[in-house]
Amino acid sequence: xFFKNKKGKEMANRDTPNMGFIPVGRLDGSxxxxxxxxxxxxxxxxxxxxxLVVAAGDGYATPHATAGAGDDMLGAVVGIYDSNGVPCGHPxxxxxxxxxxxxxxxxxxxxxxxxxxxxxxxCTGTLASTDVFAGVDHVAGTGNTTTGRSGHxxxxxxxxxxxxxxxxxxxxxGNDWGANVELLLVPQESYxxxxxxxx
Length: 199
Fold this sequence. Notes:
This protein is mostly beta strands.
């Protein structure tokens, strides 16, 4: 829960919500497949790197805004483009920002939420090592308009039925069980397979 800074003082885990869901890889060590999806002007929520997205009824991807409703989850955004396929924020793009504003058409590259896809994300509160194998829902926080990074995190309420299962914590210096712990997660609700609850 604490690490030491250069002066030897203990510090809590860093609170870095603006990173969203970051793909780590599959359980067998291979890369998570990435697929491009269209975004329609009907999408009423801005899209950021690291956002979880779901399959919209009209054949497009849209941000995952409701915790606990993940049976149509496609995965996490790893690339954002304007309607011509130019990366958002590029000098030649029709979208000058690093994110896709609400009601703006474009495309997103999505790391797919397959059964063995591993993602890392920060917890909004406090979780302990005893929560490994439990389920947690995602929380749709607000993205950072400067960096273009997502504000999506996971809840501190460990449960059985939820969007993800906890398989551990990120083994980085300064990351330990407690407040704002960064977790390793696998989907348990997804468009690509039937849900299987965590314990």
